[in-house]
Amino acid sequence: MKIDIYNEIDLDGQLEVIEQVYEAEAVEKGDFLYLTYQNEEKERVVLKINQQECTMTRFSTPKSVMQFLSNETSVTQIATPVGVQILHVVTDFYQKEGNQVTIRYALRIPQTGQDLARYKLRIQWAAS
Length: 128
Fold this sequence. Notes:
By secondary structure, the chain is mostly beta strands. It has strands spanning 2-11, 14-29, 32-38, 44-49, 53-58, 64-69, 72-80, 83-97, 100-109, 114-126. This is DUF1934 domain-containing protein.
């Protein structure tokens, strides 16, 4: 199976677009679809998807978990060059249609309430 990840990142008005395609394994358990792939850093990534939410787990050091639920805020920790940062994941929009998920979210600095970056993420999957 192929997974296509399209991500528009807005860093203070600077727009960056990243498109990645990976080979993935798909497993259905209950009403969740699990997509597993290896990213360019050779980390295993698991996407757990259903109609209401998506959880992205990166098996990095430390492990990074981001949860996306429409109009909800969750907390994540992300390894950066200056150490591990605790950030809020503020999801404005989440929609699953067929073999595609669309998510709009911001990573927000909890101490200041300032957005570090805003994202428009689209994940599509199909048999290869």
